[in-house]
């Protein structure tokens, strides 16, 4: 889709809200809570951003972009763009779907991780189901959509947790207060998500009740084991053998040999490059696949993962 920037709002000192409309003025595809779009930036980078409100008129999308101090060129460029600038985008995709908008849910967001949770809160509020939104940030000034959430129709469902005022979320106390195990939807930095996930598992939450979306890459437990410094990838369709030297990702090695596969985040959290493994043992370094999928070793995120065997046979 060709999209134009129609509005830019400075939400905080480091977060901007960007409204996008179709270049030709047509209606945009609808989507469900938790969806994201992938933007192709003028410098060629691909970046994914959650859509941070439910469709209203169907004529615009809204995303929130945090200016990352360690930006590799994506967020920094978007913070420099102006109204009228054009971007290309994918159709909305959803790997973080609200499982059942008519069942009790607990939404847990930290920092920019609040973005996919706002449409979920809007949907849950519409259905009238009981829910809670816990938003963790450093301070009110650093919390995106602070004023909007304070005046929303579900403002009484929003619980604020600010680390700078000693009101940090006590995850263990919160989860201990539930006699049942409602669905948990978690989004934010990897450390925050891991803390919530680990605490919930200790308290008996079933895996299918835990839903998360990462906004940054994190290390898989397998990274504590020494992977192969150099290995080979075999292309199943042709039998071609490709060397993957130290410091080079599988996708980079494939590209150097004329084999391109779709990539986006390059950190293993978006799922774009997911590839089937026919033989060999991957060294999983992604956060997209579940622990059970890691254990099966039938899929790999080649943008970031390596190998624990001398050769990986990929379904390419």
UniProtKB/TrEMBL annotation:
InterPro entries: 2Fe-2S_ferredoxin-like_sf, 2Fe-2S_ferredoxin-type, 2Fe2S_fd_BS, Beta-grasp_dom_sf, FAD-bd_FR_type, FNR_nucleotide-bd, MRET, Riboflavin_synthase-like_b-brl
Entry annotated with the keyword Transferase: no
Residue ranges annotated for the 2Fe-2S ferredoxin-type domain, each copy included: 231-316
Keyword tRNA-binding appears in the UniProt entry: no
Coiled coil: none
Pfam family name, one: Fer2
Domain of life: Bacteria
Domain FAD-binding FR-type positions: 1-99
Keywords associated with the record: 2Fe-2S, Flavoprotein, Iron, Iron-sulfur, Metal-binding, Oxidoreductase
Protein name: Oxidoreductase
Origin species: Marinomonas ostreistagni
């Amino acid at each position: 889709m060709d999209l134009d920037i129609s509005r830019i709002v400075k939400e905080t000192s480091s977060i901007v809200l960007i409204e996008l409309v179709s270049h030709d003025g047509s209606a945009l595809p609808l989507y469900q809570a938790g969806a994201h779009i992938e933007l192709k930036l003028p410098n060629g980078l691909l970046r994914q951003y959650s859509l941070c409100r439910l469709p209203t008129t169907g004529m615009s999308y809204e995303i929130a972009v945090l200016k990352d101090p360690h930006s590799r060129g994506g967020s920094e460029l978007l913070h420099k763009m102006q109204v009228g600038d054009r971007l290309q985008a994918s159709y909305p995709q959803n790997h973080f779907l609200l499982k059942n908008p008519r069942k009790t849910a607990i939404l847990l967001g930290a920092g920019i991780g609040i973005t996919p949770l706002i449409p979920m809160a809007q949907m849950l509020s519409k259905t009238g189901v009981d829910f809670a939104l816990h938003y963790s940030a450093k301070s009110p000034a650093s919390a995106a959509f602070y004023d909007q959430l304070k005046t929303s129709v579900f403002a009484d469902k929003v619980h604020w947790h600010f680390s700078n005022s000693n009101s940090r979320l006590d995850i263990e106390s919160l989860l201990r207060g539930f006699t049942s195990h409602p669905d948990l939807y978690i989004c934010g930095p990897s450390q925050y998500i891991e803390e919530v996930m680990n605490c919930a598992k200790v308290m008996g939450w079933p895996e299918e009740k835990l839903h998360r979306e990462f906004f940054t890459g994190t290390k898989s437990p397998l990274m504590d084991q020494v992977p192969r410094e150099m290995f080979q990838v075999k292309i199943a369709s042709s039998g071609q053998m490709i060397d993957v030297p130290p410091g080079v990702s599988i996708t980079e090695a494939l590209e150097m040999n004329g084999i391109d596969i779709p990539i986006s985040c390059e950190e293993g959290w978006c799922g774009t490059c997911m590839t089937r493994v026919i033989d060999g043992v991957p060294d999983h370094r992604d956060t997209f696949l579940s622990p059970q999928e890691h254990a099966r070793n039938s899929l790999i995120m080649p943008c970031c993962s390596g190998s624990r065997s001398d050769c990986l046979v990929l379904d390419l």
